[in-house]
Design goal:
Blueprint lengths: L4 H14 L9 H8 L3 H13 L3 E4 L5 E4 L8 H9 L18 H4 L1 H16 L3 H15 L6
Antiparallel strand pairs: 1-2
Helix pairs in contact: 1-2, 1-3, 1-4
Length: 147
């Protein structure tokens, strides 16, 4: 399974916003800089996420983006489908027609199982889960000093 740059950027941007104050609008240039995403490309990604109902935005010098829903209500799978399309998440295996006796036909059940497993993980993981993991990682990364 492959996630496109667009899908990865969407998850990174959404997690970035989930880690911020939910009432504050984050300027796109700040998100792009923190996440090392080209700003022009991020604009397209965020526009798609806004159309899908995941983001609120405001234009102007005091504008920016914020999540439209709490992080616990947004799954990674829903974000990926918003930018990749419905078949962009768990589509494992190669497309094409399997002929009788062709090994590709024998693998259909395997690819279906892989696809269902991927869907299960991304649909069972929320931005809140990722947010919590990020905070835990950062807490563990702080040095412990003994006096």
């Amino acid at each position: 399974m492959r996630i496109s740059a667009k899908g990865e950027y969407a998850i990174k941007a959404m997690l970035d916003l989930a880690l911020r104050d939910p009432d504050t609008l984050e300027p796109i240039q700040d998100i792009a800089k923190r996440q090392s995403i080209p700003q022009r490309y991020l604009e397209q990604v965020l526009l798609g996420l806004k159309r899908a109902g995941f983001l609120h935005s405001r234009r102007g010098s005091s504008g920016g983006y914020r999540l439209a829903k709490p992080p616990a209500q947004i799954t990674v799978g829903a974000v990926l489908r918003a930018v990749e399309g419905p078949s962009g998440v768990g589509g494992a295996g190669r497309s094409g027609r399997a002929m009788p006796g062709d090994a590709a036909g024998d693998l259909v059940a395997l690819w279906r199982a892989v696809s269902e497993a991927v869907d299960s993980v991304v649909d069972g993981t929320t931005l809140e889960d990722l947010r919590r993991q990020a905070f835990e990682r950062r807490a563990l990364a702080k040095p412990m000093y003994h006096i």
